[in-house]
Every structure is written in C-alpha cells, then in structure tokens.
Amino acid sequence: MRYGHFDDERREYVIDRPDTPLPWINYLGTEQYFGIVSNTAGGYSFYRDARLRRLTRYRYNNVPFDVGGRYVYVRDDVTGDFWSPAWQPTRSPLDDYECRHGLSYTRIAAARNGIRAETLFFVPLGETLEVWRVRITNERDTTAELSLFSSVEFCLWDAQDDATNFQRNFSTGQVEVVDGVIYHKTEYRERRDHFAYFACSEPLAGFDTQRETFLGAYRGWDRPAAVERGAAFDSVAHGWAPIGSHHVRLGLAPGETREVVFVLGYAENPRTDKFDPPGSQTLNKRNVRPVIERWLRPETVAGGFAALGASWDRLLGGLRVTTPDPHTDRMVNVWNAYQCMVTFNLSRSASFYESGIGRGMGFRDSNQDLLGFVHMIPERARERILDIAATQMATGGAYHQYQPLTKRGNDDIGAGFNDDPLWLVLGVSAYVKETGDRTILDEPVPFDNDPGSEAPLYEHLRRSLRYSQERLGPHRLPLIGRADWNDCLNLNCFSDTPGEPFQTTENVSGGAAESVFIAGQFVFAAKELAALAELQRMPGDAAEYRAAAEKMTGAIVEHGWDGAWFRRAYDFRGHPIGSSENDEGQIFIEPQGMCVLAGVGHGDGLAARALRSVTERLATAHGIVLQQPAYAGYRIELGEISSYPPGYKENAGIFCHTNPWIMIAEAMMNNGDRAFDYYRRINPSMREAISELHRCEPYVYAQMIAGPDAPTHGEAKNSWLTGTAAWNFVAITQWILGIRPELTGLRLDPVLPADWTGFQATRAFRGATYEITVRKVAGTVGRVSYLVVDGEHVDGTMVPSAAPGAVVRVEAVIEG
Ligand code: BGC
Ligand code: NOJ
C-alpha cells in the first residue's frame, strides 16, 4: 500500500493523506539554518547546532512524535469553524490534502469548506531564516471573512536545558513586540549575542507571545483559545513559555487568492553590543530589520525559492543517469543524492530518531558521509576533512565525535573506537580521487585543535595507520578497543562475578579483543594511502604501506578465515566471534564486505566463498541481515549487541549501511545480477509499494529494517541520517554503474545485471563533462571491452581526462 507517489518531473514526493504510518519528514536549509518538517507541519528549527541554538521547541517522546511545529490556523469568522491546513494540530476533516516534499522545501496544501490554503516552507540560500508562504484562496461563490493565525513555540535555546531545567526556565522567557515583529530574546541579557524573530507580511489584528494565554488553561494546540474566539490576546511573555503567534484578518472575494508571508529567523548582535551596560535590554534590531522587510516581500520570496531550485539543479546536474530501472534513476538522480547532502550537513544530530541533543558530528560518520557528498560540493568536503582531522589526537587516535559549533572533539560517549582513524584515510582519498586536489595533503592541520601541533594532513593519515599498527592483539589483528564500526560489539566487557554486569571502560585500550573488520579496513586504507604516497612522490612510504597491507592480509587469512566466511573478531579471552564454533552470531556481514572491498581473498577463492555464505545465510527479501543466528539473550562479554531483541539493530537487524559493502564486493567479483538484486531489496523507492510494512519514508534510506527474527520483519526504523545513504550511492554509481573516480582519472567499469542493455549518464568530473553511453547485449554479462571517446577507440576502462569546460562523449561497449 502507498501513501503517495513520486513526482519525478518535479523532484517531489507527494503524500496524499496526512495519516502516514510515521511522520514522513523533510529538511529545510542547506547551510547554517535548518529545520525538520513533517507532512503535517511538525518539527523544529535550529541554527547550526541542534542542541545549543534551537529556535523552536520539541517535546521528547511526544505522541505522535512530530507534534509541535509550524502551525497555521484558518478560521471562518462567520461560522467560527477553524482548522489546520496541514491537518495537525486540529486534525479537522479536510476535503483534500497534499504534502509535497521537495529538495529543501515542503509544500502542504489542503481545502475545507471552499477555502484552500497552501503553505510553502523553505530556507533561502545565504540566510539564517525560514519563510512560510501561505496562499489562501476563496473557492466559494460568496465573500469569505477569515482569520489566519500563525504559531511557533520558542525553545529556550539550549534544547537539553529547555527540556529539563523548568525551575529556572519558567522565569527566563522574554520577548519584545515591535512594529508587528515578535522578537524572542530569552538569554539575551545573559549571553548578549543572539535572538530570534518572527514576522508577518500583513498588518496584524493582534498577536500572542505567552503560550498559556494563546492556548487557554487546560487546552492544547488543537483548540487554542485565541483561535476559537477569533481574536488574539496581545499577550507579552514574561517567563513561562514564550511563543510567537500573529493574527491576520482577511476578507476574500469569490475566487480571490491572497499571499501572506511569515518569516522566522535567527540573528546575532554585532560584537560591540555585548558590552551594553549591565541590565540593558536593547536588542540590536537595526541589522535585522532590513532582512525581515526584504523577505516579507512576495517577489523576494519567489526569487529566493527559484534560486534554491537552481542551486539544486547545479548540485544534481553533476551526475544524471538513465537506466532501464526507474527506481534506480530517481534514487541516483534525486533522492539518494539529496539524502547524502542532508546527512553530510546534519551528521547524526537531528531527526525524529536522533534527538539533536545527543550526538555531535561523528568522526567515523562524517568521513563516510563525504563519500556520497564530495562530487556535489568538493569545497565543503575539503573544509569538513580539515575540521575532522583537526580533532585527531597526536597518537593518531580520534575523539568519536565533535561539536559543530566549537569544532572540538568530545568524549561524551567515550573514545577508543579503534576503526575511527582509518575512516579519515578513506575520506581524504575519496576527496582527492574526485577533485584531483592533492594540495589538501600538504595542508597544515593541528592535532586536537592545538595550534602548536600542526602537521600536514598527510602526516595525520600516516598516524591513522600507525594507530592500528601499534595496537595489534595476540592474532596480529587490530585491537577493537571499545568497538569498531559496530558500536554495539563491545568485546572488552566482562564480569569477574558471573551474572553481574560490569562494563569496563578503563580496560578498553588494554583489552585484548581484536577485530577482523578493522583488519580488512586497515588493508583497504593502507592501499589507499600507498597510492596517495605515490602521488606525494614518497615511494618509500608507498612500499611500506603496501607491505603493511600484505602483512595484515596474511593475518586475516591465517586467523580471520573461518572455513566458509571471514570471522568477525576475537573476544578478550581469544575466543572467535562470528565463527561456526559459536552457537549464535556465527556469521557477520561486516568482515565479508570490508575484507572483499579491501581485496582480501580475491585470488584464492575466499572472497567468492564468503559472498556465497552471505547469500546462503544472511540474505532476506528485505535486505541482508547483520548476523546470524541472532543472540537470544544478553551476553555480557559481547556488550550492547546482545541487548537488542533478536532481529533489531545490530542484533540481526538488516543494518542497511552494510548492504552496499556486499553490493560492491559482488560487483568486484563480477556478479552484476546479485549486486543489483541486493541494491533493489533495500531501495526505498522499490519498497514504496509495501509502505504499510516498511512504514518509514519511501524516498530515503532508513538505518535499519527489522530482520527475520523480529515479529516485524521488513519494518524500517531510523530514517534519514545514516551512512546507508553515502554507501548506497557509492555502490550503485561507482560499482554497479561503474562511473568511478580514481586518483588518475575517471574509470568507467560497470558491472550490470544480465538483462540490461546498457544505460546513459552525464558526469561532471574535474571541470569537464562526460556524456556516457554504455552498450551491452541483453543476456550477456561481463566487463567493458573497450571505450570509444569522441570517436576514438581507447583500450581499457580509464577515460582519458579532458580539459576543464570540455564536453566529452564516451561510449563503453560490453561484448559479454
Ligand atoms: C546503536 C548504534 C549507534 C550507537 C551510537 C547504539 O545504541 O545501536 O547503532 O551507533 O548507539 O552511540
Ligand atoms: C550508527 C552509527 O552512526 C555508526 O557510526 C555505526 O557504525 C553504526 N551505528 C553501527 O553500529
């Protein structure tokens, strides 16, 4: 069953009923100001940091979880009937409803009793504000006397404090209302540097800024007293809960449409204002007033919206494909790329599954997010790499996370995830492959943000590898530390007293547990760094890293191979994990993917055998599960993984992030059919038809789909902010379609399903544009036989590089 459809032409997902299985959201903003918006206008906004600069309030564990949002009420001033054109919060029956989630904008439209209201939400480029453009049409044949009320509830900036520190916060709220603009200035007196504003394009009939006055005692957002009586109270908040609400009266002739613009924004005072005399309450509205006035004008709004669309044309224009599969086309051309951008911007901070107060930017996560993003805005990828690298410690180790506002590493959830440093090598190498910009390797970057400790980025990468090399366990495999990619595989946990849970953290770095996954990742990273070393003209280093990769490969083959698949790890006592010797958790997906990706076992049949085991033991119709058999009960010596009920998350859920590793591995092994089959199983657009089971948005990947051990097998959770986005983008575009940036140029090496006859693509690469056509006889399998580049025959699969600005026609022929 579907709850909407894709409008491919307009790059929108159209939801045609408000009661989706879960709130289906979109993101507003691409730079500094962001918002989450659900299909019923729920969600919140923030400036840069979802915790410390939260503009609007969100209540955790609310039901449904998108309650609290950008709400508009329409009231018929003759009958007193009022309703919400986004359905929430009044949930009045609507004559029709449609929500269109587009690229960084959302448009929600509905009609009731002959009045149609459509709201467009977006954040203009270069601004720290959001625009709501409400268009209201009288479809009756008589005049309509209407009231329009806007509403937002302000968060007192620090979202964590806002949700907990009531004794203080009920007494801090402050607003100012000047010339119809509501200024939320709580904390202004203390910090003296930031405030929010909420403005409306129409003359006001009234306003409210105190929540309880607007709503009335014992009422919720579904029936505000002000809306019910048809008149605002002009309340000015002192303490309690500041909100912003404008009341506008509109008389609409039959057929008439009116446009009302609301602008909600964030502003900072110039530095000098920080030294206002103590007690001064003056906000500096001088700077912000012209911005407000500009964005309240319909022409500015129209122009800003068009500019946003044009920017997405540019971003997505760099790679466009036409394949025999519409699900592939719409994911690659629009939605997967879009999700990569959102995930890159937000890391794992703010969604309805990530609280915005918990996790900062992940070291591991951000490096992987780069993979799907770098071709769109390489400059921002560069900046991100340098930010991440500056949090690396001199030992080569990493803080697991850093705060976007301060860019400092934090130890909130502990350090010692021993895979972290290696992701930096993979992120940097992806950047250099895309851009050819090797100057980044010479860029001076401090360790742990200490300016006295600068070293070239290349030196950071060397230390990343050394970090693993200096931490090998009894089997010469890398120590896992607190965990590797699988945060929940905590193998240095143990209890001296049986039955008594004890999670050691001190023991982490000294713990003897080893990871075959990190071993594979090390081989991968060492080979990448060897290639970068060659680029740096450091043949000694290159040879050293190749030798190190080989040595680690030896350790994997000797101690990491279980007979029919790669083992997962060794626990701190030296017992294998992910082995046929175990009763549960015999085979894990991660080392099968990572080792094959790294080139381990290609020549000797191990890779092919491991992939066969994945098909036989882990693949399901809804995707490939993380491990089997699931852990039935809690095992202290494995940590968090066994705390999940079977079939969820890391305990045998379909952890979508790992599936593309297997797709890539299958492509490397020449199995186009299997690679593409796995791709389709978790492709959200393919799963749209089973939305009642899948439940999450059909236009973006979710982190997890419940595995066969769960009663809800096939149900997705944790949509949007997941490494799944970047890795699937890499799997489909670089390995299945085979358009792959390498250090020396663009390779064209597709591994296609047998029944395809080819595909077409446009790819911008290092300033030139490549118009690609791949031809293959249906029914055949095989790799590219030769290329024809601007009419010239070229052997092999490397596309000769063209000058910036050139448009090159590339034909690839697969003879089968
Ligand atoms: C989850 C992981 C996640 C980790 C972050 C765990 O509870 O299962 O998927 O990465 O928390 O700290
Ligand atoms: C989600 C985290 O964001 C990611 O870093 C981790 O690798 C996976 N969970 C697996 O535990």
TrEMBL record:
Keywords: Glycosyltransferase, Transferase. Signal peptide: none annotated. SUPFAM superfamilies: Galactose mutarotase-like, Six-hairpin glycosidases. Residues 312-738 form the Glycosyl hydrolase 94 catalytic domain. Residues 11-270 form the Glycosyl hydrolase 94 supersandwich domain. GO terms for molecular function: transferase activity. This is Glycosyl transferase.
